Amino acid sequence: VGAVLKDNHFKTFPHLTPMLSLDNVFNLEELHKWIVSLNIEDPKIIVEDKADGVSLDLIYENGKLVQALTRGDGISGEDVTLNARLINRIPHTLTCDIGVVCVRGEVLVTTKNFNAINESLEDAGNKTYANARNYVSGSLRQKNYMKTKFRKLTFRAYSVDAEEVYSTSDEYDFLEENGFLKLKTVIPSSLLKRTSKVHDFLRLDPAMKEYRDQHEFAIDGLVFKIESHRVRKELGSTSRFPRWAIAYKFPASTGLSKLEDVIWQVGRTGLLTPVAQISPVFVHGVTV
Ligand code: IVH
Predict the structure, then answer these.
(1) Is residue 93 within 8 Å of residue 63, measured between CB atoms?
(2) For ligand 1, atom 5, which residue shows the shortest CA distance?
């Protein structure tokens, strides 16, 4: 009881259902194509923040948290249950004890906490973290799980798989009743009944940058998803992505640098590759 893992590896276990990734679109045209490809008149779609954290699968059996798995290769993930129990907003018990429940979400750190952590590391002359995601990933996978407790991590849920949960609104009710925080719904489906409404919303794109920059934690886009679980089942998935959801990715952060030189790199086979030497530039938390 309370033993600390002795080797470097967490045990891996299969996910109850594969933890798929999301297909991406980068502009309105691609988003529109996706909506048309659904071939549904008036599709009911919800839009949520796409949090840039580390995804985590929480399994509850008869109302008790029994396992927390990282994404891993999507089929099996690493068992980080002991660490997950020490993360804010991961309830250990549910208010109901219905069979098996799977709650999925992202482990995050607020930008404010992350910056404060990096500042104190810098003050102490220590190496800082390149970005919040690396910090979260390392903190979640601490061998000595007690250390996870002090890493100021927090969990935001984005999906629930359980009996009698048939739609996003059921998922949201479930999460609220059980003490989870969920990722923010940016546009409710009532505003998105027609694709033209989606277009109206995304015309606000430049404003979305402001939205993103003011956000409590890092978000790298929006997730558009079909509300009804029945319709989701009908649409199904490819081996990598569900067809019922798509990520609208924000443009990558940019920075301005100076081209100092171009050197020729000679490959093993004699292939010559020109490599740009640029002066260091700080982009989205990393020095390139
Ligand atoms: S829904 C794939 N909703 O982004 C199954 N995912 O880059 C449906 N993510 O694998 C996922 N915020 O880990 C969904 N509001 C959100 C999300 C979200 C972040 C993660 C998730 C997904 C990854 C794809």
Answers:
(1) yes
(2) 20
Distance CA 49, CA 59 (A): 23
Atom number, ligand 1, closest to the C-alpha of residue 159: 1
- Distance between CA 279 and CA 259 in Å, rounded? 7
Is residue 105 within 8 Å of residue 183, measured between CB atoms? yes
Sequence-distant (≥ 6) Cβ neighbours of residue 147 within 8 angstroms: 139
- Please give the distance, rounded to the nearest whole angstrom, from the Cα atom of residue 22 to the centre of ligand 1: 6
For the chain (288 residues), the mean pLDDT of every run of 10, in chain order, is 61 93 89 88 86 96 96 93 95 90 96 91 90 92 87 95 93 94 74 58 61 82 92 93 93 86 92 93 70
- CB 109: neighbour CB atoms within 10 A? 23
Residue pair 102/162 in contact by the 8 Å Cβ criterion: yes
Alpha-carbon distance of 138 to 14, in angstroms, equals: 22
Structural contact between residues 20 and 242, judged by C-beta atoms closer than 8 angstroms:
yes
Integer Cα distance of 157 and 275 in angstroms:
42
What Cα–Cα distance (Å) separates residue 208 from each residue in 41, 205, 214, 218, 249? 27, 5, 10, 13, 11
**Residues acting as catalytic residues:** 50
Atom of ligand 1 nearest to the CA of 183: 15
Asked if residue 106 has its Cβ within 6 Å of ligand 1, the reply is yes
